[in-house]
Records
---
Amino acid sequence: MIYNKFMPPAKSATQRRTDPRLKKCPFCLKQAKYIDYKDYPGIKPFVDYFGNIMKRYYTGVCLKHQKMLRTAIERARFLGFLAYRK
Amino acid sequence: MPSLTTSASAANETASDTADRDVRVYECAILYSCPIAQKDEAALMKEIDSYFHEAGATLVAKDAWGRRGLAYPIKGAKEANVAIYYWEMDPLKLKEVDQSLKISKGILRHLFVKPPKHYQIIKYADVYELWLKERESLDQKRARERQEQLEERVAAQAKRRAKMTTEKKTDKPDAKISGEAIAEGIEKLISDDAIDI
């Protein structure tokens, strides 16, 4: 890395945040074939405070499971299990 | 745990005599209003069943969740009863059933889903209740931790106060002694005849 005088000093290993890209898909770890819209405790962690679906970048979900998750969340929203907007 | 694959295979066996009849399993989630009399509920259940039976459907499984809070009011209701059905029926007749469910009065909302292959029916009502209990225990843990922290703080404050008071106590007699010493010194000075002021 080229040293730049405007750059902040490098942080120690404990201070540094883990790279979000290094996360592994929680659904792949469980070998999930289908994400159910009825599984409220399973879906809830992937929805933020305002009811938006969390970005893949932050949760580490793979594209295949993110698509399944999206359909599950939309179905759960339609049936009133999850909020559209808080 | 019941799975749809077994029922599907059973359907294939029965389908041998009705080869032209195409049958699939559909999952139907129904929300109906919550404060409902038992009579009305039974009548509504009969009505729902009649819609499906008219379409020549057979019930595979039923999962009644019971009362559940809604994330937003649907038709003015903040709570609803939830029932999930698994029906084996002709896809061509799905539209009719869908329409009649839409029209029927007691139903707040319904949703038809075609479950994927090798889908295993899980009773999510139990899962949800278990999760609620776990979450309660988590909340209790947090509350306990907070209380412990508060107690620690209070104990630390009490210690500090005790220390301060002891310091004050130790300071006061010193001051008295010094005051007495000063007074004695002044008296000696005054009584001393050798000094002329």
---
Amino acid sequence: MELILPFLIGILFSASLYLILHRHFFKLILGLILFGLATNLFLFVIGRLTRGGSAIIGQDERVATEPFADPVPQALLLTAIVIGFGIQAFAIVLIKRVYQSFGTTDLDDMNTTDQIEEKH
Amino acid sequence: MFLAILAGFLLAFAAPMLYRWLGKWVYVPMALLPLSIFIYLLTLAPAVLGGNNLGEVQQWAPSLNINLHFFLDGLSLLFALLITGFGTLIMIYAGGYLKGHPLLGRFYLYLTLFMTAMLGLVLAGNIISLFIFWELTSISSYLLIGFGHDKETSRSSALQALLVTGLGGLALMAGLILVGMAGETYTLSELLERGHVVTQHALYLPALVLILLGAFTKSAQFPFHFWLPNAMAAPTPVSAYLHSATMVKAGVYLLARLTPVMGGTDEWQYTLMLIGGITTILGALLATQHVDLKAILAYTTISALGLLVTMTGIGTAPALEAMVVFLLAHALYKGTFFLVAGNVDHATGTRDLTQLTGLSGSMRFTAIAALLAGMSMAGLLPFFGFIGKELVYEATLEESPFRWMLFAVSFFSGMVFVAVAIAIGYGVFWRRAVKATPLQHPDKAMLYLPPVILASTGLVFGLLPGFFVTPLLRRAAEAMLGVEQVFELALWHGFNLVLGLSLLTVALGYVVYRFSNRLLSYANRFNGIYRLGPANLYQLSLKGFLAGATKITAAIQNGYLRSYIAAIITAHIALIVLSLWKDGPRLELTNRLQELSQLRMYEVVLLLMIVPALIFLFKSRSRLTSIAVMGIIGYSMALFYILFGAPDVAATQLLIETLTVVIFVLILHKLPAFRYLSHASERYKYVLLSLAFGAMMTYVILIVKQYPLDSQLKAYYGENSYLLGQGRNIVNVILVDFRALDTLGEIVVLAVAAIGILAMLKLRMQKGDKP
């Protein structure tokens, strides 16, 4: 598994980036969500995998005994997942508003504020 | 000296307030400042004239060895006295010239700022602080030229002056740093003694080119001369002070200052003589092609600056003596002339030479000042200008391969100077006219006193050259030569070749004056040449620069999100590949292959769920299916977390995934159907980029996992979670106890996102709002 997961993460990153590079707003959001998932998995795998031991101290113990999973990446992940959800929810509502207001979900139709005028 | 500079800056910024309190009397405190500095400098003068250089060190950041050095020798003293003395008169004059102007306070701010910066420039004892003051003069000059900012020409002239001198300033900074590297010190007094080291250094030539660029732009030397006539858009006091007497001489000052450090080489000598010579001739020639008083004065100023540069380039003792004498003489008579031109403009409303006659009756004192200055400019006895011109002729006629060429240059400019002097000093005021130009405002004391004082100074210096002037100029020349000089100024040298040539200059100058109308009629014929001139080149490059900047901005900031992202990702990949390529660790996979055998069945099942789901995601044309597929991927992730000992993460992932799907379904059912919007050709590019990115991330993880993880955090939290945090679930304890503040921050982020969502949902487009 240690050897397979990096490849899985690479596939997830590729897929998500490809979705992000689409012109369609909806695909962009799908890409963002997928990118978040890939990043979370990346963090988790970088922090080393532990089989058969969670980061919980047993009922009759006072300190954790090996093997137990590294709690630091898990704490990071929890935070990342929740904040990622905030961004997703915001993006989903944003796409709805954009479609209501402009009648389009094509990102190329929404670039006027970012372009300089060629002639004054 | 430090206090003088500080007081200048303080008073400058107090000027607008003082104007509000004092009204038209604001000129009193503004003039008192340069006057008191002038007097203070005079008290220092005896020591300097005795041959002692004064230094002063103001500790700034002593731990970094950055100090404010001030340095006063003959050369600095000459300039400092010129700046403050002239400054006093200008402050008074400006009070009269811009009387009642609503922005007079601001004008005084700029003017005092400039004066202080200029004073700092000539007193600086460190080439870095010299550069800073140099830039300050450029900026204050920009503000002063653009003072009449409601006019288009003022603005563009100001910008032009700033761009040209600012460009030179940048070059100068680089040059000074190179000099500092070559001489291994940035302190002026130390640098002055290491000239032989600097000139032998490999960095000498680049440093020289850069410094000359700075000096030439500032002192309006060919081919950068064009900004100076345009700078005449400034109010006349500014033209007189900055663009004739002081700021444009900063370049000359720099050359003079660095003569002991960088001078004496062939490159130095020939460049200065060549550029100075061309500028002298060009300025004189162009001066005959104009009728605007200030334009004529501007071009003769260019010519005079060229002559000063030429003299510096010759570099012999007589040439440097001539240089300092001519510099002082020029400042006196040209300053006077500018003030006179301002008076005429103020009183009659025109500066056109052809329309001005017979003003001596109505503007008596201005006329006298003009006459005195004219005689000094023409180099007549017994004026200071006469001594200057004699010395210039003597210096050019010294034995050298270029003696006749140099003499021709100075003779030509001398001739034009005579013609201009007659035209302004005599023609405008004293020539008998049928009908004198009528006055709109009477001449005022505040306006005519400063030029009268300046012009009479020229006379006094001419009559009494031995008194104060000679020792001062001698020390100034010594500062450039680096050795003691015996140097006598005398009005009368007896009948000799130089006197004869002087007389010839005056005679020919008179001829030029008589035929000036004829010369003017040729003006149009040069238009073709002007089109190729540097002024036009400047306009073209400015336009090209703006167009280029627009193009680049349009290319970089094109508004397409995916090209931004592609750029970020590409840079990311490039940086990582670069750092891993060079001496990064090599990937060793062979001995890790046996890890594959530990693969469990249920892990394979999960993989078999995710990969086909991804493929399905790309195939799907329906929004609802893709949302469902995303849900599958998310849940599979959660299962992974459970398998590897992270039940809390898995629980959160499950919850969030469910919520996301619910929100999606609630909101997105109103959206239009899926479409492929990108072109097939573009897609290939992005597929490649995505694959490269994924491959890189895989590679990074594999590399990282080759090494053991060295973290003490796991052990720490494992030991202390229950003992300190009283909790058995370590992850929970970290979140709510050890790192509780971070969790608070996370909650705040969620709250902000919620507020944003609420605002978006409540937002209603107003009528007329454009998408």
---
Amino acid sequence: MNNLVMFFILSGLILVFSVMTVLTRRILRSAVFLLFVLLATAGLYFMLDYMFLAAVQLTVYAGGIVVLIIFSILLTSHISERAAMAGKWPMIASAFVVLLGAGVTLYTIYSYVFKASAEPAIPSTMKSIGSHLISYGEDGYALPFEVISVLLLAVMIGAIIVAKKEVK
Amino acid sequence: MAFSIYDFSTLTQSIHDGLSSRLSPTGTLAMEWAIVGIVILLFVAVFGLFLVYAERKVCAFFQQRLGPMRVGPWGLVQTIADFIKLLMKELIQPARADKFLYNLAPFIVIIVTFLAISVIPFAKGLQAFDFDIGVFFVTSITAVGVIGILLAGWSSNNKYSLIGAMRSGAQIISYELSVGLSLITIVIMAGTLQLSGIVEAQRAGWFIYRGHIPAIIAFFVFVIAGTAETNRGPFDLAEAESELTAGFHTEYSGIKFAFFFLAEYVNLFIVSAMATTVFLGGWMALHVGNLEGFNHVMDLLPPVFWFFIKVFFVIFLIMWFKWTFPRLRIDQILTLEWKFLLPINLFNIILMTVIVLLGWHF
């Protein structure tokens, strides 16, 4: 009962703010509504007793990506700017894409049989986080971990090249 | 109702039993939420005001003055009077500000401080939430706090606010790394991210003593980075009054300004409480080896007092920084973090790992 109420509150927040993110014409407000969506998603993870993922969601999305987006908005746009209204054809095209996306998602969700598990949540101790992160067996994250480190290295080199002053 | 100041879990358990015998499970949960919320709210208000008073007194003594003396004995009621004045002030709103974000920003900042306080173990059993990833939760929730500052600066539609917010943001984001890494150094030793578990692991001795060299380095790095993260002097260039008036909160007045002001002092408390919990043994009493008599005398003082004694020690240390060192420039701040603290920290983590693996700690 309590969980159900919390679920409806959180998913309601996610829905409302997702729509508001794309409907507002002020770009920073849209970033803030996106932040609320991400925070509510972290709330869902907390509800599932998956504290580690919730904290990762807070750090990476709310604390990292949204801050990055806000920073770039602060550097590039002025407070009086409003996004222009889209034309007729872009509106129709995006409505079509939205319906298609919603259709695919709903079809996938309703055709999949979810099995409810009554097992208690596994506590995310330091040991289990660490061993999963570097294990290459089942439930291991060694490959994504390495791929991400290569990606980060590439990004770092790119950032240095961009930031380096040209030698005259 | 059995109650012991040495162990709060009996008190919280009896409150829980009392509520559940009268109310439905949902009602109990709602009541407990309300109780926790009100307790934290009161704590933030009272402790924040006390810290403002403490800061003024400490500052005064460093400058060989007396500080506030007129209102109440030794000026104790001064900050309450100041706060009432703030509450009665007119709320001014810039005409061309983004009203929604302008009003939202102070709430983001203050809510984040509430969330961070809720996981701090004040004494045995006196902790609102005990997550299995407590340390990680504190660092992740403070990462959200910076958004409030950025929004405040941008939505005020004021150049000084914007520059102040950008400086604040750059500084907080940079120093978050050092805060996180210095905490991880100790987590390697503790073997758990749970705050109550970290305190419990220090029963045999505080980590700053047991981890000797790397732990002491991590403690210094944490205190420096924590000072920078709370935007306090000597890192307070974001609100350098001579160049940026008041930084990101220039346009705020009355209660909204009070929110930023209070949040700053409560963040000071959070940094000190984390330093206490992770490095200085949390609410554990000071024990020295096998000196039975001495240890028994130390145990007489309740854990909650031990916690606050240590917290005030760290708070005094950070205030000492503020009134002793000259303010840094923005490039000096970023150099200190990226060229000194971060490499020291990374090296320190490797050192700590080696020491833990070889069992060279106490």
---
Amino acid sequence: MKHRYHQLTKWMKGHKRYYFLGLFILFTLQYFRTLPPLFVQHIIDSIFDDKASNLPIIIQNLIAADGVQLQLLYVAIFSVLFTLFRVIFFFLHRVLIAFFAENVSYNMRNKLYDHLQNLSFSYHSNAETGDLIQRTTTDVDTYRMFIGEQLVEVVRMTFLMVFTIFQMSRMHVPMTLISIIVAPIIFVIASVYFVYVKKVFKRVEEAEGTMTTTLQESVTGIRVVKAFGNERFEIDRFDEKSHVFRKESYTLIRLMAWFWGGTDFLIFGQYLLTASFGIYFVVMGQLGAGQFIAFLSLLGLIVWPIRQLGRIIGDFGKTIVSLDRLDEIVLTPTEHDQDRGEYPEIKGNITFKSVGFQFEDDAKPLLKNISFDVEAGQTVAIVGKTGSGKSTLLNLMVRLLDHQEGQILFDGIAIEDINKKWLRKHVGIILQEPFLYSKTVFENIAIMNQKAAKDTIFSAARVASVHDDILNFEAGYDTVVGERGVTLSGGQKQRVAIARMLLDNKPVLIFDDSLSAVDTETDIQIRRALMNQWKNTTVFIITHRIATAMEADKIIVLDKGEIIETGNHESLLRENGVYAQLWDIQTSIVYDFKTRKEGSE
Amino acid sequence: MTKILDKKALKEQLARHVDLSKSQMTGSMGGRRGGGPGRMAMGAKPKHAKETVKRLLGYLKNYRIAIAFVTILLVAATGLNLLIPTLFSIALDDYIIPRAYTGVYLIGIYVIGIALINGFVRFLSRFVMVRISQKIVKKIREQAFSKLMKAPISYTDKQGSGDIVSRLSNDVELISASLGQTVLEVINSLIILVGAAFLMVRLNWRLSLVVFAFIPLLAIFTVFIGKKTRKGFKEQQLHLAALNGLIEENITGLKVVKLYNQEPVFTEEFRQENDQLKKAGFMAQFYSGIIWPFVLFVNNFIYLAVIAVGAILYVTLGPLAVTIGQIAGVSQYSRQFIMPINNLAQLFNALMQGIAGAERVFELIDTDSEYDHDGTAVIDRFEGNIEFDDVSFGYSDDIQVLKNISFKAKQGEVIAIVGPTGGGKTTTIKLLNRFYDVNQGTIKIDNIDIKDIQIDELRKRVGVVLQDTHLFKGTVFENIHYGDFTAAYDTVIDASKMANAHDFISKLPKGYDTEVSEGGQNFSQGERQLISIARTFLNNPDLLILDEATSNIDTRTEAKIQASMEKLIQKRTSIVIAHRLQTIQKADTILVIHEGKLIESGNHQSLLEQKGFYHQLYYAQFAQ
């Protein structure tokens, strides 16, 4: 319970006072809200009938006057001023709550975002992007709605009911009991209904979802549909989903109709009951006509909103779920929490000593007993099937993942003793699917060195053989890359990523199959240019192309997480193992029968 | 409004530019997008509102009795509801002030009775209308989908799948909302507006004038604030979308962010966007918070004005001019105006959106079906003699993608099409199964013009294996079965074995029952291709169109694909867009297509001897 309370309130830090002030105003307003029916009572009972007024004494004194007309005028003026006062404070209350809620969610989003950014790569490789986005937006918004609207509404209704019952009881106690008799019943019905209807809602949404998926698939796969002449099949399938959707919607509509209609009926029943008893009490002389009318209007303050109360309280569960999901993020330690910070000079001598790695929830290790030595300036090619552990190996070198067994040494220093950011600054990786930001091509290259001069950027692009491509774009270097760089071809993206890396001199450089979408010739061209510029850089190349691997000083063949062969091209061919086999296959099939000028698909 | 839209516009521009150059270069299947009607989403105005409304009314025809019934009931109930203030005024004048309370009770019962009737009618009318709208919308949706399936590929290519899906989901939803709710509410608001005015004037015309004096102020203000509020929420929505985009981009690119130590840059960017969202959110709340207090206050002010004027009238003209009951009655009527004035502007907007949505859906329904002028020849089997005779084609009238292509393929032959990307290779094969129709010339199979053959029959007999294959959501088995629904289980497995797909499928945890996710994303490109080859084996076509893979599929899968394609080719006339030397060398005829023209043809040896374009191409690519 205490935990829940903390969970609910911890995000409010720093702005609570606005909230409490807002809620306090709300409290006062609810009291004032119960007064207008009493003005009516005052007019009818006190002004016309000389009976007692139920208005608070202070107000009675304020509007006291001689003569019916003057009294009426005072009531009217006072009620307008009173309304003005209510309205202003209501507005103030809303602004306060809105200010509070927006600030809280602003802070939440910032905190979540910061935290997400600093979470380890292994966390992110297990998390789905869509899910994380949903947490930072939808879940935050769920909480915002909770503190900004739902909780406020519940508090408001509670206050209102308490004051309403209070005002009623000041007039006539038995009538009060009679007038609220149906409220608990409606509340229970509403609570049950909203739990149930949520399930039906979900079914409708699912039915709609399947229908839309079917639609989407039929549209994107229209060529296949037509190629096999299966239009009829698709139409029947869609009609079926459309039918299910309508059927589920009917259920929902029927349910909603029964609930709203039924509770309406109950509420009118309540009015009838109150009216009948009211008449009785008036005839008996226990109740004034004004009080009778006041009862009927006060009644409305309780019975109508109580239906919503069921829903709002039902929604509280959602908030808890959202907060749990947020806590899952925030309570995960970031990768920098325990980072040891040494900043040694990195030259590029790298040693792996029986290194092993395994994801916690995996049954099998991804890497086992990996050992090798690389001297500064050497080029190492890593060859192996998809899933053989090549990328894992690279991720260990930049500590996107942390190895569990053995040792990785950079110039004799254990990798875990080097500050992560420092390490990443000196080890450059070019990914197979390079990520370009939705910024201009220029900015995408300059990202590695914001201060780089135009010429530096151009020459980097030239080395990466992408300068001419860029100039061919409509806006040249100012061309904005689409979301995830969709408007560039795979080869162009890879080359931009290479250009980006060239801005900064790195002692260690890793190509993670990063020339796969570039044709063989451009591939060679780029690598030659690179080797010239960076003679002292240690280079790792992951590749499918044997033609690329063969030039390396050292070739490592990985299979199922283990090194099965090492050596150079000649020695490995002599071994006649897996590498030699791959060499055979690839030299007999020739790829890339394309024009040269394009160098991409 | 600003940032996202700019980005979007830029992106569209860019996409169009790239696409244009692409469609000329590659003519890749499915690459053509953009174009289509610009979707400025919100506030889109219908172009032919009248016709569209007429058509919608046509759908309502079958339900006219129910609708008439509901409308009459609704008018009656709302009318009764409007009597309540009059009843109050009577209660005050005739019973409360003379202290004859029994009458008050009677009126009380009337009021409750009216409320009950009103509640019931409202409930009934909404229920009936929602049901009717659901029925109609279902019909429209199914009509649209059916037409979509029957429309030629060029339609889907031109519109883009996003646009089409949106027509069938969002736009249909707009229609549904309009029919089910908006129309009723418009009717209701209008009745209240007119009825309240009428009854108020009847009750006391002098006092009504006071109310009428305030209405313009109220109307202007609510409409103004309403606009501000909507704009506020829209802005909030836009900033939220921008923020989502930022998070998505950063998280998908997180590896890069981390590797390049870019955290501070993105944190700053996020802060800024987040800040804007906060401000927009606050403003939206601010404006939406003004309405209620304002309306409440003006209401009360009108109340006061009515009472004041009433009092003056009473004093100067006496009880014949005004009664206390009338003052109360008129002031209550004045409240009835607020809601409809506030609502009507919005409702009208919603209605227009519904009509615009309907218009877009009808546009789809009115698209020509490619079956309208379907051929009549029914083919049992093709021998497999293909003839292109002087074929020219362009996606649009002004740009010819293929120019005067003529060639023949005899039964069982393999034709390899080679040439630079974008030269028209893919377009050539699109014509054979009539995804697109030639502009000039004829294509014949076994001496029959393909335009004379029933489209479905033609396509079933012409198998296509493309580079990027589409798998449907469902099991692996279902995906292969798609090639021939009549096939027995064992036949499907056999086809899969023929395609070299059986091995990897049986190794999957659930084998053939493994679920394929949307678009087949849980399978590698190579695996997807193997499945699609199995599908084609099952279909057992007489002619084949193959597009060899160029992208990097891993070596072993590639070899498997190659082997199964070779099996597929056997005994079938095949046209292959070739990338592999082996395929090219083995082909009976090689067609070299460049810039839309067939520039050379012959076998490998003879083409080399010609020392022409093919010779150049060959030495540039294959000879080391």
